[in-house]
Each structure stands twice: as C-alpha cells, then as structure tokens.
Predict the 3D structure of the following.
Amino acid sequence: MRLIMNWILAISSFLLLIAGFLPKETLSNETSTFGDTTFYHGEMARTLHPLSYLAIPKTIPISRLTPIYETDILGSHPNQGIQRNPDIMFTLSRLNSQYPDLDLNEPTSKRFLIAYIQNEPYPNLITLSQERYFHLQLDNDIFNYTDRFYTNGIRLSLISPSLSQNPLNKLLIPYWNRGINYYGLSLVQDMFTPSTTKVGGILVGDRPYAAYLYIASSKITNDILLQLRLSSELQIGIIGSASMGEYVQRSFHNAVPTNNEPLGWEFQVSNDLLLNYYARLEKGIVSIPGLDLLIHGSGTLGTVYTNISGGAYIRSGWFNPYFSNLYFSKQSLNKSCHARNIQFYFFADFSGRIIGYDATLQGGMFNKTSPYTIPAEDIEHMMFAGSAGIVFSYGGIQLKGEQFLISSEFKNGWWHKWLSVGLTFSF
C-alpha cells in the first residue's frame, strides 16, 4: 500500500511540474453563446494553483450582484459602494425576474453588468420605477365660452414598468447618469376648427378644420441628484378624416340641445401620416420649502409639428420634491418614504416657441390635396404660450386644472385660450 501511495504522489508531482510550464489561457470579458442563451463573463478570479486555468467558475446567484440601497424621502437610489464578486456568469434571460430594478434598455445599465466595479466606484446606474399611473386629460375651450381653433383634446396615458419591454423604447433618448425611468403609452386625439363653426364652406384667411389621432410611446427619466428630468416620446398616427375628429365633435354638439351642428368639416385637412418625435428637458433652479423654479426646453420634429420652445415653470404650496417621482405616489409609498400624502399647490408655466411646420394649418407633409390650407408665409413662426393652474393630490389620486393661453398662430388670427382638466391614479 505504501508503495502505491508513493507512486501516486510521484505521478502527481510530475504532472504539476509539467502543468507549470503550460501556457495559461486568458478568459475574456466578451459574451459567449450556448444554445439560445447569452452569457456575460465578469473578470475571472485566479488562484496560484498551476491547473486553475482549467476550472470553469460556477454560476453565482444574482443576489450577489444586488447593490446597496439608501431609502429616504428622495426615493431609492443605488449607493456607490456596490459590491460584486468577480467570478460571475449569469444569463440575461433570468435578469429581469431576479433583478427587476435594473433598466436594461439603458446602455449605461448594460455596462454595469460587465464593468470592473471592484477597481473603482460605478456611479451610473439607471433603475426602473415600479410605480404605475393612469392619466385622463380633457381639453376644451367651451369653459372659456368659445368654440374655435384648438377646441377639443383627449389624452389617455398608462405608465407601467411592464411597458419597458416595448421595442419602440429603443428609439427613445438614453440617459447617461443616475436616474429612475418611467415608461408609458398614450392615446391622443386633438381637434381644430375655424373661428366659427356656424358657417359652411371655406373661410379664406381663417383656420382650416383639422384633427389627428396618434399612439405615443414615451419614457421619462428623473435624476434627483442633478435635478433633471428628460422626457422623450415617439408619436405614430394619422391626421385627417380618418382620425374621427369630425365624428367626435358632431356627436358632442348633437348631444347638447343648445349647440349648433358644426358646418364645414368636409373641407378639413386631408388624410396623411403623423410621425413625430418629441423631447423635453427640465432643470431645477430653485427648490426650497414651498417654492420650486425650473427652466425647460423642448422640441418636436416630424410630419405634423416641427418646433422648438423654452421657458420656465414655477409652483408654490405644499408638495414633495419635483424630481422624486411623477408628481405624486400612492399612500403606502408616501408613508415608506416619509413623503407628503397630501399635496396642494399653484403653478404657472411660460414659454416662447419657434414654429417650423404645422400641418394643422399647412396640411400634411406628403398629401397635398387638402381643399384649403394656410400658406407658410401666413404662419406666425414665433409664438407665446402660457398656463396657470392648481393641483390637489391625496395619496394615489391627483386632480389638476390648468388654464392655457397662446398667441395668434397665423396672420390676422386671435389669441386663444382653453381649459384643461386632468385626473391621475397611482396604483
């Protein structure tokens, strides 16, 4: 027996001696594919054993990737002190269920998965909000005793973390710092009429009838540390009779006995593609108890609207930090974050706008068969827009009333105003 053990030790020593001269393989940080599964390799740990390069690290539970969170009134944000074991192999297919807060739509979040975190802090991490909102907004100038120009608007919106899987989100603007993302879908219909709907035919020099309907995919990123909010939205739909603006307004007028049936819809802007891209950036300037001041800039590029604008927003009252979430949260979340459950404040918003193209006045970009439009030289290319309103929130319910005012959109036109009422639920 002793002789056998001596032979085994001798053979083992010989093999180890040979292995010490073998070239060591270098395991990369690139991806590898096995079947339908993609693996991401973190930095591989080494031991001093000469045969260690032959060992393949086992899969480590994703919980060992979880960053440390700080929870306060500002919400949950990853701390820079992220701890990660260098021996990591995991599949992206399991990541969403085991690490739901990481937003894989963001390039900076994907970099987090393969970054050398043990060498230096990795501060840029985009998380996905688990909050859900349903929003209903109604615009109408009937509350200002008019029935002209922008006369009616309806917006239905849903914000939910499940919408982060929408493939259109890849076309929305990425964010390159810390933040919390909200994804949404909206259905919007807006209607426009001349200065009067009681006269048929074409009113030359007046606004043409127009309406559009679109579906929008949107993303909002809140960066509470830098006090920034970045919003982007892709809008796809149609302008013209197919948007059913005529049907909606006629139905409303016929339902109210004192209203006259609108005349002239047969001369509305013809059907055409609506494809717009909208972006908005807001930056906090002053934030003290009872007072917020922000500046903002936005722009729209597309087949119906092309414009840029910039202005300021101010509010005063009792409210939670502007960039902590989307204005309010449900009662249980307010309690956990020590935030106000009741908010009540007044606000005002002012902006200047430069107009490049407006299809509701000039007709569609591709279909030039509209019976009547306003020529480009008669469009007011510089406009003023302002609004003021009041907001009341209790837990996960918010009620908002806002009065809008805009300067003339075309030569010899008038200033116009309308009232907007919004109801939002957080669930």
